[in-house]
Predict the structure.
Amino acid sequence: MPTYLLTGAAGFIGSHTCVALLEAGHEVVAIDNFANSHADVYERVEQITGRSVKHYDFDVRDRSQLAAVFGRHQIDGVIHFAGLKAVGESVERPWEYYEVNLGSTMTLISVMREQDCFNLVFSSSATVYGESKILPIPESAPLSASNPYGRSKLIIEDMLRDLSSSDNRWHIALLRYFNPVGAHPSGLIGEDPKGRPNNLFPVITQVIDGRLPELQIFGDDYDTPDGTGVRDYIHVCDLAGGHLAAVENLGGLGGAHAINLGSGNGHSVREVLEQFQAVLGRSLPHCYVARRPGDAASCYADASRAAELWSWRTTKTLQEMVEDSCRWGGFLK
Ligand code: WQD
């Protein structure tokens, strides 16, 4: 069976993708420096799958250690998750975002070329669409970025497009995630960010367990059905399935291709809050405050390309995303 190298494998999406690849019978080689993850996640991946993960604990930018991993394993393809991903933090620390996100990618590509490995799945983001005027958003929509995090993703996409245009040995999938949420139904792995969360789901789970006093809803005067922001939430297990489909079908993908990974449906902040309250059977403290700078009113995917290419579609409902988040948080059996 093929062996895939996952960078950032101990992270939220990386760990769930490890599970999906192992359950599909593939071998996984993992690399993570635990900048935003924890070492014990590998034991829990093994607990879920009954299969072991060969993992190396270093920064992907360490070229000699990375080359040594390729020397030890026959790597058939790489899924590159490693990187920093907080929009607000990227505004405060732009240079670190460029050093980590671009630096890790450049080191990875250099080593892959030396090792004759040309199959790559890159963790991109819907943030490269900026505040798209087109809804649902197709992969052909204009690209722009309004913060260093988004710019780092856009620059890397451009680098990978140039690389594949210059060398037809490359097969590259640029996966643009919308809003990954939820957790594995076992409750053993989930989103476990270091520091204060910015995203809606981890903020709500910190309100539930009292670490935060209330949910502040950023604006209720958007041009949306209930005035609050609308987003395309995708269960992390569905997202992992999208990576499995991508990596198994890379061979048929000459060049570099952007593919949206989203449900194609939008849900508002109020709908998400109401779903959490329904699952928990109690109301949660919340208030309405000013809009957050940079937020779009609505953002949801045209997910048809992944369906056409790989017959991949999301399967999980908002209720399942909320239930699995609550189970991971320990609020639900
Ligand atoms: C969702 C909705 C907020 C927190 C971000 C990144 C994007 C991607 C996914 C990496 C919005 C509202 C949120 C809160 C709120 N990450 N909200 N109160 O901003 O759509 O996307 O995460 O690729 O790059 O930009 O996600 O979860 O922060 O916000 O009202 O305390 O919830 O206004 O409408 P976002 P989010």
